[in-house]
Amino acid sequence: MKKHNYSAGPCILPQEVFEKSAQSILDFNNSGLSILEISHRSKDFVAVMEEARALVLELLGLEGKGYQALFLSGGASLEFLMVPYNLMKVDGKAAYLDTGTWANSAIKEAKHFGETVVVASSKPENYNHIPKEYSIPTDASYFHCTSNNTIFGTQMKSFPTTNVPLVCDMSSDIFSRVLDFSKFDLIYAGAQKNMGPAGTTLVVIKEEILGKTGRTIPNMLDYQQHIAKESMYNTPPVFPIYASLLTLQWLKNLGGIAAIEKINEAKANLLYTEIDRNPLFKGTAAKEDRSNMNATFLLENEAHQEKFDAMWKAAGISGLAGHRSVGGYRASMYNALPIESVQVLVDVMQELEKNI
Amino acid sequence: MKKHNYSAGPCILPQEVFEKSAQSILDFNNSGLSILEISHRSKDFVAVMEEARALVLELLGLEGKGYQALFLSGGASLEFLMVPYNLMKVDGKAAYLDTGTWANSAIKEAKHFGETVVVASSKPENYNHIPKEYSIPTDASYFHCTSNNTIFGTQMKSFPTTNVPLVCDMSSDIFSRVLDFSKFDLIYAGAQKNMGPAGTTLVVIKEEILGKTGRTIPNMLDYQQHIAKESMYNTPPVFPIYASLLTLQWLKNLGGIAAIEKINEAKANLLYTEIDRNPLFKGTAAKEDRSNMNATFLLENEAHQEKFDAMWKAAGISGLAGHRSVGGYRASMYNALPIESVQVLVDVMQELEKNI
Q1: Is Amino-acid biosynthesis included in the keywords of this UniProt record (chains A, B) (predicted)?
Q2: Which pLDDT value is given to residue A2?
Q3: CA separation for the pair A185, A222 (Å, rounded)
């Protein structure tokens, strides 16, 4: 039975990515070798890396604007410390917007490197909205924000104009909507939502912001080293990068970010309309900050939980349970989730209403 | 045509690992979902992680001896700095044995954290042997060595007895030979030789050595955090870990490390015997330190290079070119390389002799 995969990440990827990557494990590029056994220095893999790095900049509209794309490892969690290591001046400070669990983890790691100013936090309201009134210290080394909060179902709809470098963790909504990406000086994202399987991390950096901290940085954590080695400072995670390239190619063929944005808006509208209409449900995030990637909602009456859970499971839906910090349900509608899967969920919600 | 894959890493893995992992990308455990789209918190993947961690300790004979196995990311290169971060006391020192390029990289990263004493180095002889006469400062926080030097074709056949924690980078020969692994306090290894595809790093730690430095450590670089979170501090590289589990299962079914050691010795004997016998070739590493994983050798007369290269390529051999630091040839004979592939190379070497 076809599954409707609402997993919050790692998450659904295009079916053609599964098929092509499985084939490449049996025989990559008709080489007689598996993608899992080739050297990362082989001509075929160097071509994968180069195409993936170039395609990222093309899709984001950042070609020829002084940016470099890197495929690293360690997850966004390693970027939580690489960002301050590479950008926070010795005896300097950095500004952070606290919009959820991951923003909080980034703040904790930054504290190892210097003063960390939290300009605003929605923690007292269990992160149900994005703070909008705050000022960023002009002497901060950078301002850091999280564009989408997977756990709490909120998403930044606009970004502040800053006179300090703008750094953004876009792990859970990169490549999902049109933004002026040139506003950002550093973007990072774990692959495992819209870009590919778990195991690689995209970092997009405006090169001119680097090398200004006065710190000595271990090579492996130094963005300038990774740039100098063309994202091959050490053996990269070959297969996750290859599967990410396949996913980026799928996105390009679909029409790029502008095309997927329309689809994502249609999916989110379909589900949020039902959440607002159906008296059995209520959303948890402030309406103006609702995420188009992760819709979080509760049953008005918890007594219906057993019945609802049985119904969506019977419909082939998986991964709908909410995070323990919020409870209820979380429908993650990443790029590769078809609108048909959203319709199945909406149908189940309406069916529940009829059967109560 | 079947390839004989001598790649130095990433490298050949068992054919059944390719087949099972390709299948898991199309449908994992008959779940209707791909291994690439399931949550790392799903029951099925938690079981993968637990089995992989337990199987590592079982294969190394370290069960119940106070060790923890972790599957991290970032490659051995990230361990170059995690080791001093976690083990080098504030204002302390660490002792290193310099046996090649990777040992040297580890030393460079350690210098960021404190005094780094190089107890011996074979660099003046282009790392063609393993230094044996040296003393380890008794006040060092640990002693670090590299068990096998992929580039230079040398391998430590014995390890010093130390009164400080013994740390070893076993990236290129772990699971290839029987050792008393309980002599070691920390072992790390990039997966991409004998354990799996590129993208994860095994760390095996005697837990009692941790937490003694007086340093504060960013969470993501703190072994104690990773242990507390059962190797799931953040989203792990799901697929590389799954493919590593399949490779470890293959090794266990074969009879474990003792069984593969016999096969590896037979392969190495076959090739080194031919290198020593055939007047056209000479080995580059000191005989007593020769690696059973990577055999490095030269043509006595470089004029034969074109002919030899054409012959081994025609025989389906790939990945035989030596590293630029040594030149000539490097035959990497990791666990999954069948002895039949070594025989094909020996046949080509003998064929060349007849045709000169």
Answers
A1: yes
A2: 76
A3: 16
Tokens of B86: 């976690």
B216 lies within 8 A of chain A by CB: yes
- Given an 8 Å threshold on Cβ–Cβ distance, is A1 in contact with B32? yes
Rounded to a whole number of angstroms, the distance from the CA of B179 to the nearest CA of chain A is 26
pLDDT digits (tens, 9 = 90+) for A210-250: 999 999 999 999 999 999 999 999 999 999 999 999 999 99
Structural domains of chain A, with CATH: 15-254 (3.40.640.10), 256-355 (3.90.1150.10)
Closest approach of chain B CAs to the CA of A277, in angstroms?
30
Judge whether residue A164 has pLDDT over 90. yes
Query: What is the predicted ipTM?
Result: 0.98
Residue A231 neighbours by CB distance under 10 Å = 20
Cα three-residue angle B36-A236-B26, rounded to 5 degrees: 20
Segment B302-310 mean pLDDT: 97
The residue in chain B having the minimum alpha-carbon distance to the alpha carbon of residue A73 is: B74
Tell me the chain B residues in contact with residue A23 when contact means C-beta distances shorter than 8 Å.
22
Note whether B220 contacts A81, CB cutoff 8 Å. Answer: yes
Q: SS3 sequence, chain B?
A: CCCEECCCCCCCCCHHHHHHHHHHHHCCCCCCCCCCCCCCCCHHHHHHHHHHHHHHHHHHCCCCCCEEEEEECCHHHHHHHHHHHHHCCCCCEEEEEECCHHHHHHHHHHCCCCEEEEEEECHHHCCCCCCCCCCCCCCCCCEEEECEECCCCEECCCCCCCCCCEEEECCCCCCCCCCCHHHCCEEEEECCCCCCCCCCEEEEEEHHHCCCCCCCCCHHHCHHHHHHCCCCCCCCCHHHHHHHHHHHHHHHHHCHHHHHHHHHHHHHHHHHHHHHHCCCEEECCCHHHECCCEEEEEECCHHHHHHHHHHHHHCCEECCECCCCCCCEEEECCCCCCHHHHHHHHHHHHHHHHHC
